[in-house]
Design brief:
The protein has 629 residues and is α+β, with helices and mostly antiparallel strands. 44% of the residues lie in helices and 22% in strands. β15 (368-373) and β16 form a beta hairpin.
Length: 629
């Protein structure tokens, strides 16, 4: 009799002790990341049959169960990947926004300062100090463009260094998950779940989702297979996979995340990564950063090209034709490393005012060439190996093979390559190479409104010429005599330009028969400012998306700021989703100290009652022994 009570009491003591240990373990791990609350599951032992029926034999611990909700945990994992991606992209884009909005590195003020210096030059074109100030302002502007472009390039390099670190982290976690899979499968051989190992594996999966979005598929032995967002296997049972960075065959400046398969690496596109910090870094490197570089580069290339074009139309202080004020910026174009043909690609700028802030891709397939504007995906197809699009002339030569691809980065690197070509203030071409004179012997009301040198500069632009007016059948006509050759008569209309030898003359008023105009070289025109006026006016011309150069940088800053706000809003939404998912998971699996304290009291009373039962059984046993004496 007493032995039965002893056994029941012993089972109660053991069960209460196990429950106390479980509650204590929960309390101890209340702040342990990834820990899931555990609970003791009791079951009664099968009773002994007596003549009066079955008499209980006490209690036993059936299991120490992990409180776990697979759906809520999976939701938390996916929310973690989305939040990590948006947060990473937001942090990276914030650096770009800060760079463009920083007055110390901003270019808008330098553009204004440069053209103010050119405006000053129009007032005193022969003053050496004013010329030096204009040249210094040009150098400062070039330094700002170059510095900003270089810092964007450094951001790109830094992004790829971060990608390398994230790839290493993913590989370490993949090995950890594979190792835990093996241990869990072995531990499951006793028919019980190894709770702590399962928690460690779930925590590793969550950290994986911080780097790259993964999904899991449970196996019969307790292990799980892990797949990246696109379905590529990362962990299969106890076998870990690995990822690595590989150069993009289309653009060698860019690195792609690739999945290792033996000695080779299979590149993954950004959409195949799915989420996590890696996806955020890829989005920044492939979308946000190129857009900022292209917009800044377009501004640099447009400004340099148009300013050089006008500068070459004038004469410097020494009477020599103007050269390049800024060094020529050449667009970049190259063939993909995977091409099998011998095709090559070249690109030149035809009209800077038509440039679009985008890269381009040329694909050759089925005998046709397809040009794609990467920024918006618009395409043009041609059977000829050339395109004239968006102010660019793109030409292909050689023999491409079907499937070959070519990349055109017309403006991407322009800001970094922005430099001043002039070395001396006297080389600034402020003067016009030609001048027009109205003879005092004219009797009509003919007057000169404007004399413009046309681009590109004609080698004969300064050749002396005489325009003679005469009536023919009641219609006023003019002829041009230059170099002993007289042109055919043409009808004269006031306000309609007279174009010859690379210059365009606009007149006002009405000439009389026998009147004339003289065009001659502007010899010794050190005080002439007509080309300087044209240079200063460039700031207000519609050269960038139909707007002036002065407002183009402000538009770029506004666009980056607007994009930053949009990304921040999305990041806030993703963070809220993560917080909700973690709260729901914690409500189901987290440790509540109040509940655990209540359980401690309950199991303490359970233990004390079982101990009291053992005392009663001991007294009964002593009484039985006494009766036996």
């Amino acid at each position: 009799m007493s032995s039965g009570i002893f056994n029941i009491g012993t089972s109660a003591l053991n069960a209460a002790y196990t429950a106390l240990r479980t509650a204590g373990n929960n309390i101890a791990n209340v702040n342990t990341p990834g820990y899931s609350r555990q609970e003791t599951v009791f079951t009664s032992q099968q009773g002994d049959f007596t003549g009066s029926g079955f008499v209980g034999r006490g209690v036993m611990v059936a299991d120490v169960r992990r409180v776990y909700n697979d759906f809520l945990t999976s939701q938390a994992h996916q929310a973690q990947a989305g939040a990590a991606q948006s947060q990473t992209r937001s942090l990276q884009l914030a650096q770009v926004a800060a760079l463009f909005s920083d007055p110390a590195s901003g270019i808008g003020a330098n553009i204004d300062g440069f053209f103010r210096a050119m405006q000053d030059l129009t007032q005193r074109p022969g003053d050496v100090a004013v010329r030096q100030n204009a040249l210094s302002a040009g150098r400062l502007l070039a330094d700002r463009f170059s510095d900003l472009g270089s810092r964007l390039q450094e951001m790109r390099n830094s992004t790829f260094r971060q990608l390398r670190l994230e790839a290493d982290s993913v590989n370490r976690l993949a090995v950890e998950v594979a190792d835990l899979n093996e241990k869990i499968a072995l531990a499951r051989g006793n028919g019980r779940a190894p709770n702590d190992l399962l928690d460690r594996r779930d925590n590793a999966i969550r950290r994986l989702n911080e780097s790259v979005r993964v999904t899991t598929v449970a196996q019969g032995d307790g292990s799980i297979n892990v797949f990246m967002g696109s379905g590529h296997p990362l962990v299969v049972g106890a076998q870990p996979g690995a990822i690595d960075l590989v150069p993009d065959p289309v653009d060698p400046q860019v690195y792609l995340i690739g999945l290792k398969a033996g000695a080779t690496v299979l590149p993954l596109q950004s959409g195949e990564v799915g989420g996590g910090r890696i996806a955020g870094l890829i989005d920044f490197a492939s979308l946000d950063l190129p857009q900022a570089e292209n917009e800044l580069g377009r501004l640099a290339l447009t400004l340099a090209t148009k300013f050089n074009e006008q500068h070459q139309l004038g004469n410097d202080r020494n009477g020599q034709p103007g050269g390049l004020f800024f060094k020529a910026i050449n667009p970049t174009a190259f063939a993909a490393g995977t091409n099998t043909g011998t095709g090559t690609v070249t690109v030149s700028v035809a009209d800077p005012a038509q440039l679009v802030a985008s890269d381009y891709r040329v694909d050759f397939s089925g005998g046709n060439y397809t040009l794609t504007r990467v920024a918006d995906g618009r395409t043009w197809t041609s059977a000829a190996p050339s395109f004239a699009q968006d102010g660019l002339n793109i030409s292909l030569a050689g023999t491409p093979a079907s499937g070959d691809r070519f990349t055109v980065q017309a403006v991407r690197n322009a800001a970094r390559n922005f430099e001043v070509a002039l070395s001396q203030p006297a080389q600034i071409a402020a003067a016009s190479p030609v001048q027009a004179t109205v003879p005092s012997t004219n009797i009509g009301s003919l007057a000169i409104e404007d004399l413009v040198v046309l681009a590109p500069r004609n080698t004969n632009v300064a050749q002396p010429a005489t325009i003679n007016f005469a009536l023919s059948g009641g219609v006023m006509q003019y002829t041009i005599t230059a170099g002993g050759v007289t042109s055919a008569p043409q009808n004269y209309t006031a306000g309609t330009p007279i174009v010859f030898n690379g210059w365009s003359l606009t007149t006002l008023g009405a000439p009389s028969a026998g009147d004339s105009l003289s065009i001659s070289p502007n010899t010794g025109g050190t005080g002439d400012n007509r080309n300087a006026v044209k240079l200063a006016q460039l700031v207000n011309l519609p050269l960038v998306d139909g707007g002036p150069l002065g407002g183009a940088y402000a538009g770029l800053v506004a666009r980056v700021g607007g994009q930053m706000q949009g990304v921040d809003a999305f990041n806030a939404a993703q963070s809220a989703l993560l917080e909700d998912a973690l709260s729901a998971e914690s409500a189901a699996a987290g440790v509540n100290l109040d509940e655990e304290a209540s359980r401690l009291m309950q199991y303490q009373q359970h233990y004390q009652a079982a101990a009291r039962m053992m005392q009663v059984a001991s007294r009964i046993f002593d009484d039985i022994l006494t009766l036996g004496r």
